[in-house]
UniProtKB/TrEMBL annotation:
Protein name: TRAP transporter large permease subunit
Keyword set includes Transport: yes
Main location: membrane
Domain Citrate transporter-like: 16-340
PANTHER family: GNT FAMILY GLUCONATE TRANSPORTER (PTHR30354), TRANSPORTER, PUTATIVE-RELATED (PTHR30354:SF26)
Nucleus is among the record's keywords: no
Keyword entries, A-Z: Membrane, Transmembrane, Transmembrane helix, Transport
Gene Ontology MF terms in the entry: gluconate transmembrane transporter activity
Subcellular location: Membrane
Amino acid sequence: MNITIMAILLILVVVITVITKKVPFNFVLFIVPVVCSLLLGYSVEETSNFIADQLASMMKSAGFMLLFAFLYFQMVTEAGMFDTIVSALINKLGNKMNVLVIMMLTTFIGGFSILTGNFTPAYLITFPILLPIYKKFNFDRNAAFMIAQTAMAAIGFIPWGIGMAYTASSAGLGAKELSEASAPWGLCFIPVIVLQWIYFGIQHKKRVGTFSAIATVEEKQEKEKSDNLRPQFFWINLLVFIGSLVALGVFEVAPYLVFIIATVITAMLNYPKNFGEIFNKVGPMYLNILVMLIAINIYQAVFNNTGMVGAISDSLIKYCPEFLLRYIHVIMLLLCVVIIYVIPFQVFNALYPVFISIGAGFGIPATAVIAPFICNLSFATSSTPTNSSTYTGCALLELDVDTYCKKAVPIQTISNAIVVLTALIFGVLQL
């Protein structure tokens, strides 16, 4: 069968599966690519070999790092380190709280919490703390979600993040080099963050009648006490956390090694007798992500090693006007929020090798093609009903998913475009 037709069929099958929801998405990624490989004439042994090589590369670059990163951040979250920092900040503000401060807090806490590397725990840190304040000040929680997500997107370049892991695996690039290339994009979010504060502040004033606070902050609510809280070890946990960031950012120590050491120290200090309980909480989350990563990499292994990437690239080069082809990655970047509203980001990620192949033809380095998607794609993944983390965020904020997504898509599309424009003006975007 023609390779180009097979590649198109493979993508269509995946898209149809997602839209119809008749078959689990992971199952399709596990089975259909293998069938396509066999139909193209590759033997079972050949297919299994390039899949095994791809999986080995994924585990080396992301799999082991994610395991220990999840363990570490779960422990410091259980110990109450993040809650202590955020609660102290809120208490310090006291009666100075107003809508502008609420938006700033949302940005700060959202950006801080995404250091856990995963949107789900970041939402679990950010929204339960701030939800009572949103309600007290009648602040639009749809806006709060978008503001928090924008801050999280700006920090999306961290090498241990789950978005980085998915992107690096799909693109066949290292997380470290992608992190270095995408870090400048985080700075390009600053204008968007400020503009969102202005826009949502104006909207709040129109809806409520004043931009100022309309109530005083309630006394700190008593939270359910957890047996895993370790307030006595706060400063030590904070030093280990800062030391880990320094090791990653300054000394460029391998992330998996940093998190192994941080995990062992934190476990011995905080949970020497019940570490297994923490692992039991992390295990299901890590297993779900690992299964998805394996499925994506099987898809990617077949896509890359059977000539599908080259075939699609050749077809685009042959039939697409050159002025559009050169900027195909920029066009897809600008449209990503709308596209991922209906198509899962895993399918979108599978096209990265095509973008890289086309970019190479115009002399654009692979990292320059893919780096813009690291942070900016976070706008899209928070504004789609095809992503499970959207449901987590909406549940925590007591929002309807479909209603939120319809409000978020146009705003996040504009926000995404402003980031791209900022990157273009300051030379961060390479054309």
